[in-house]
Q: What sequence folds into this?
């Protein structure tokens, strides 16, 4: 049943219709050529040979008009060689004036005496008669008989090929050409159809996902300004507006959204994404709203309290701004719309700078950092994005570092590979449960399902690391070790 449906869909596809149209067109053209070949070729061939004979006869007539001073026999021989003909000229008494060979005399005698073979007059005008003679299958020729102005009688014999055999060969050749053209058409149709149907199929997949309320896919606009690009741009705009509308509805109906039955894996991911965004934005919006109302109602009249309220509003606004920017950055990375500005830089210096930025937090948490700051490690990548990877790994390690066997520390180390450098960031603490090892790389995912704001973070950091590594096609991951957890990733060296 599936095979029949697939076959039916194939016959309905644009690719098959384009191929069928090309094949039918080629077959029709070849068929028309064969008909024209059979009907016209023989007539045209005889017409061409007749015109040649008449033209030669007129030339011979001019030779005997006394206009030229050259040797007539030389001119006649030249005509024979040039046109592959035989010439016989008789005077008024039927004596031979000029003769190419005995064969033409025999042909004329047979023609003038007994008609024992097929002949037909194909031209008769101005004392010129041209006949088609078919003595046998292998001996067909045209015979021109004309009375010259000086009274001489001229016979011109032009041998012609068996035209029917020529037509048959020509038809066979056309059939072979037709078969070759159909094969070529299949290749051309496949290439052209793929070029035109690929974006259409992509749009079809996107609209199917949109029908399931999944707006994660976007049509990639090319440089060509055609109708498909315009359609793709309009679908992208429509997808953005629909997604924005659904996000707004979800923020006000989070409980209703959570009760909707999840019918597919894609739908599940979409709902989780919307739920996470709604949850992350709801708290800062509520805080901003509460403190703003406090300022308006003048709950605390002293300057210090008002400043504190304003600082809370500013802090929450900055958190929202950071989260949105990081989310947009993540989406661009996931859709590979961000171009990397790769340069060679010192990874050691970058790590040292990240440690310096977090010095206060490290000291507050009594964490010991171990890192070899002496050796230079040259890598080739986008420094801004690698800085985000290091920052996320280090921040994550600081957040989850816990005391084990009387020590609380973070170990940062590197390992040289053939064309890459592997970065390791280890922190003492609790192991990650096995069922969460793969889930922690998802956006907004936190092992702590309560999402305590005091722990900080937006849950986008590891998703950003994953997107950056995927863009470079580099390995990344996490593993549980004794008394702690170690994250790792590969960074390219300059080739």
A:
């Amino acid at each position: 049943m599936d095979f029949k449906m697939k076959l039916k869909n194939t016959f309905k596809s644009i690719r098959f219709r384009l191929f069928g149209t090309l094949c039918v067109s080629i077959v029709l053209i070849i068929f028309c050529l064969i008909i024209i070949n059979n009907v016209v070729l023989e007539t045209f061939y005889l017409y061409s040979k007749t015109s040649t004979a008449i033209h030669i006869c007129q030339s011979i007539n001019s030779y005997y008009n006394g206009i030229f001073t050259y040797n007539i026999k030389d001119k006649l021989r030249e005509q024979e060689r040039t046109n592959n003909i035989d010439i016989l000229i008789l005077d008024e008494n039927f004596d031979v004036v000029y003769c190419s060979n005995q064969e033409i005399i025999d042909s004329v005698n047979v023609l003038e005496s007994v008609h024992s073979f097929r002949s037909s007059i194909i031209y008769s005008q101005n004392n010129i008669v041209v006949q088609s003679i078919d003595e046998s299958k292998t001996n067909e020729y045209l015979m021109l008989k004309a009375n010259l102005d000086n009274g001489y009688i001229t016979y011109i014999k032009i041998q012609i090929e068996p035209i029917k055999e020529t037509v048959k060969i020509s038809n066979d050749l056309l059939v072979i050409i037709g078969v070759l053209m159909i094969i070529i058409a299949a290749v051309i149709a496949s290439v052209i159809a793929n070029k035109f149907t690929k974006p259409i199929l992509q749009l079809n997949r996107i609209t199917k996902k949109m029908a399931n309320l999944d707006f994660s896919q976007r049509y990639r606009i090319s440089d060509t300004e055609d109708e498909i690009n315009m359609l793709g741009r309009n679908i992208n705009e429509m997808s953005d507006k629909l997604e924005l509308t659904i996000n707004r509805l979800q923020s006000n109906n989070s409980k209703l959204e959570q009760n909707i039955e999840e019918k597919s894996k894609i739908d599940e991911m979409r709902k989780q994404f919307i739920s996470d965004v709604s949850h992350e934005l709801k708290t800062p919006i509520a805080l901003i709203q509460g403190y703003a109302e406090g300022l308006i109602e003048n709950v605390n009249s002293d300057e210090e309290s008002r400043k504190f309220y304003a600082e809370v509003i500013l802090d929450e606004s900055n958190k929202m701004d950071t989260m949105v920017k990081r989310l947009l950055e993540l989406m661009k990375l996931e859709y590979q719309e961000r171009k990397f500005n790769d340069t060679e830089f010192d990874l050691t210096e970058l790590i040292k700078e990240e440690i310096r930025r977090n010095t206060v937090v490290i000291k507050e948490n009594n964490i010991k950092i171990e890192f070899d700051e002496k050796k230079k490690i040259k890598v080739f990548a986008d420094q801004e994005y690698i800085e985000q990877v290091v920052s996320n790994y280090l921040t994550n390690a600081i957040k989850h570092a816990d005391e084990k066997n009387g020590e609380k520390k973070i170990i940062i180390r590197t390992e040289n590979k053939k064309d890459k450098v592997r970065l390791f960031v280890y922190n003492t603490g609790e192991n990650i449960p096995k069922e969460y090892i793969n889930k922690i790389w998802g956006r907004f995912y936190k092992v702590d399902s309560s999402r305590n704001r005091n722990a900080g973070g937006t849950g986008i950091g590891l998703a950003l690391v994953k997107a950056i590594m995927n863009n470079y096609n580099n390995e990344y991951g996490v593993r549980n070790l004794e008394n702690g957890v170690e994250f790792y990733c590969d960074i390219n060296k300059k080739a």
Q: What stands out?
A: The first helix runs from residue 2 to 12. The radius of gyration is 46 Å. Residues 14-167 form a domain with the Beta-Lactamase fold (CATH 3.30.450).
